[in-house]
Amino acid sequence: MNWHSLSIKDTAKKLSVTLESGLSNKEVEKRQKKYGKNILKSKKNKSTLIKFLEQFKDFMIITLIAAAFISFLVSLLQGEVDFVDPIIILIIITLNAILGTIQENKAEKSLEALKKMSAPTAKVLRGGIVSIVDSKELVPGDIILLESGHYVPADARLIESVNLKVEESSLTGESHPVEKDSSCVLEESTLISERKNLVMATSVVTYGRGSAIVIHTGMDTEVGHIASLIMDDTAPMTPLQKRLAKTSKSLGIAALLICIVIFIIGIIKQMPIFDMFMTSVSLAVAAIPEGLPAIVTIMLSLGVQRMAKKNAVIRKLPAVETLGSATVICSDKTGTLTQNKMTVTDISSIDGTERLDGKFAKFILTLASLCNDSILQVNKKEAIATGEPTESALVVAAYHAGLTKIKLDLTYKRIFEIPFDSGRKLMTTVHKLNDRLDGMTELNSKSSKYISITKGAPDVLINRCSYIYENGKVIPLTSLKKNLIGKHNQSMANNALRVIATAYKEINSIPCNITTCGEVLENGLVFVGLIGMIDPPRSEVKDAVLTCKMAGIKPVMITGDHISTACAIARDLGILNLRERSITGSELSLMSDERLSEEIADYSVFARVSPEHKVRIVKAFQAKGEVVAMTGDGVNDAPALKAADIGCAMGISGTDVAKNAADMILTDDNFATIVSAVREGRGIYDNIRKSVHFLLSSNIGEIITIFIAILFGLPSPLLAVQLLWVNLVTDSLPAISLGVEPAERNIMKRKPISPSKGLFADGLVFKIIFEGIMIGSLALFAFVIGIRYFDGNSMGGVNGPIYGRTMAFCVLSLSQLFHAFNMRSTQSIFTIGLFTNPRLLLSFAICTFLQIAVIMYPPLTKVFDVISLNKTQWLIVFLLSIVPIFVVELQKKVNHNSH
């Protein structure tokens, strides 16, 4: 169907929809069944079975399965069919695969939940009511409303277009906005790029507004025809995950080399070849932290869920890592640092400040309420205004002064208006003057039929006035009085007030020439006075700014407001101090990029800036090596959000374009939420380091145990099945539990994490090696004690040194579980509290119980080739296992004292 060649009426007829009320809910349900969801097809998620089978693709797992098969085959050839070793190996591999599948599913569900949270919405007319729905629920025939900054949710035929411009680069490749016209009917052969009466899915409304009838949804849209190009929505690996995967690979190669060396040494020392082969393969699997990338994904997704609960929705996983490195936070003032709830606090006449409940205040607020588009509703004596914040503040102030907008509008009916324009910075309304306004002077002509009221920027409005209202009289406006008004205006601005000026004019007729009516109505006015209002700072922001400064993060205010207002609020919040400077957008435009980069660190307030300036500010900070977080809400903010290291879009006031360009969405538009997210980002990074530290030190401990024993001619302290069990117990629950460790109390008193710093910086490599040697030595010590005192120095026998192996097996496993508590903090665990991470306590309890069960439960002792221990042996095991706590506590104390 060539919808562009049909009229609006014919389009509505074809789609069986009434333009005035839209589709009924019943009809929508019917069409949803017919057309399906308004979504592009994407790659189907893998089934749980496929994910499970993919866990066996790993090279080391394949090697282990081969080893199990060889074990069974060798025993068969020897005439002793041994199912135990192969079955145990396969059970442990399967458990590992189940854990991997659970982790993958968990991460996938977290990311899917986040996608839903940031899914685009559409304004739609259904059953005569305008509501906001998820864009995927749209059907052909739906009537959608389009506004600046919103994505077009489906292909649609325009019904109305008011200055409507749409950017269609996703389809045409042309980045400049296309002007749309709902009234035109085009030839059937018109190219897509020239169909001015249509809007296409995924394009962006950059200016104006309109309404349209949906003609195509989902794969039937124009973008659906090229959907194969954008089908792959797989989340890329984060930089940290890539680094860890690379680390795992390097460690894997190193572990394989060590295992080959161990195998060769074992053969030289005439140990059983088959046993050495199984031990070497098992050790390789145990030594390689192949679960690291999966554990990191789990930690990131858990952290992202925690952030979402605190009003920060992370759209891109790398942002979690970057947050921990943030050094500068550039924030909008209105609604982010402030409450976005303007409140009138001052009223000034030519004589200076007036009482808010006085006669003059009533007069000026009457004028300001009439020249106003906000709607006032009173619920349980609470006045709630809907509309532009400045206008809403005026009608609420009037209500508190005993004036109700509805009554004023009925008494002085509006018959003409010139809407506010950012170029003129004025708004004018004309009202029928049935009655004299309370406060109007007797000197005015009593025969006037109308009153024209103008409000706007004081510096603009004062130049349109010829008279001034003073003490109930209208007198000529002199330059002296102009200067006095200018001083009152400056004084109010210095107190962080937004100032609105009000004036009026009595007329007998409305100019009929539309082009000249502004010149007539907005000149020769009577200046009445100034109304000062403030958007109060959010109560929590002052503390958040202080936290930023303690954390080595520079908070920066960016606003379109007057510089005096911006500086006053910045000083109140602690953003601007005596050594820091402020700058306006016009001054910024005169600076070269080189000079701005040199001086950028001196500035904390940027006032009267345009969205284009934001990109320059971001790049200037980045040129100094800073990691920049930037907030934004408009279409024009998208380049700055993309340029920033962390783009933060506003969830309440933000446009779809801003949200799509951002890495993070603030659902409460609050500066304190960014600071909270930075804290969370630092905590997640710390926890990932803790898990890496724990896993690698444990794995090195396992390598040391085997390597040193074989080097000194001792039998292998651990069998293949025992090594695999230790790896299963220590690599799963404790490592993940460290991922939910609460952030350290002093985390925001530290400097930001340098992006150039590796994961193993600050002596982590030394700590890992030292602790690995300690764990390995303890297990070896237990092995030697077992051989010497309980095996009667027996190195061999039918079952080998069974007490020595059992004790080494227990110490290796339990010492790692105790060691997990050391990883919780760089501070003493007795300082942070033993019970502040209940999940780690639960993991410790479960894993300890499983380890004891393996030793004490007869059916399992046969499987793992161990023997039940008596009280003395358990005491030795416990004392050796707890040693890591005391050694690392001593290490922490030495480090603390040296700092």
Automatic annotation (TrEMBL):
The chain crosses the membrane at residues 59-77, 83-102, 251-268, 280-302, 692-712, 724-743, 764-790, 802-821, 841-860, 872-890. GO terms for molecular function: ATP binding; ATP hydrolysis activity; metal ion binding; P-type calcium transporter activity; P-type sodium:potassium-exchanging transporter activity. Residues 2-76 form the Cation-transporting P-type ATPase N-terminal domain. It is an enzyme of class 7 (translocase). It holds the Pfam family Hydrolase_3. GO terms for cellular component: plasma membrane. It is found in: Cell membrane. The keyword Metal-binding applies. Its main location: membrane. It comes from the Bacteria. Gene3D superfamilies: Calcium-transporting ATPase, cytoplasmic domain N, Calcium-transporting ATPase, cytoplasmic transduction domain A, Calcium-transporting ATPase, transmembrane domain, HAD superfamily/HAD-like. The keyword rRNA-binding does not apply. It is a multi-pass membrane protein. This is P-type Ca(2+) transporter.
